[in-house]
Amino acid sequence: MADYRIETVRNGERDWTARNERGAEVRIAPADAAGAQPSFTPVELLLAALGGCGGLVVDRTARTADHDDLRIVVESVSRPEDDGRVGTVRVLYDITLPEGDIRTAEILENGIRLTHEKYCTVSRTVEHGARVEAWGPDGTVLFMGG
């Protein structure tokens, strides 16, 4: 399992950029920040991570089945009682299989199941939770949860 490091820097009010060590960047801002568009919200990035991880893992777990047209849609559903958290995440795998191609359907279904039961680090972390620590500039732990 790899360890990761992302640096997030402020561009301006409610406008941030996250960078990885390989030089990729993504802009983060609220959906209503007109001057910071195009961007992703933090929740959209979480959903994108679930879809991306699912896709990368299905590429491996279902590699013997043709899935070039696979599309993954990830939706969040939250209610007031979810207390500021995402309540439910739905990961929808969309592909049209040739009529009567039972073998490909079985391979894809098994690959998707294995993705979420065993191999997708993002899905498994969201499902089981992770410990979160917030460290202040002086090195003290200001928050620890999970």
Automatic annotation (TrEMBL):
UniProt cross-references to Pfam families, sorted A to Z: OsmC
InterPro entries: KH_dom-like_a/b (IPR015946), OsmC/Ohr_fam (IPR003718), OsmC/Ohrsf (IPR036102)
Gene3D superfamilies on file: 3.30.300.20
PANTHER family: PROTEIN YHFA
Descriptive protein name: OsmC family protein
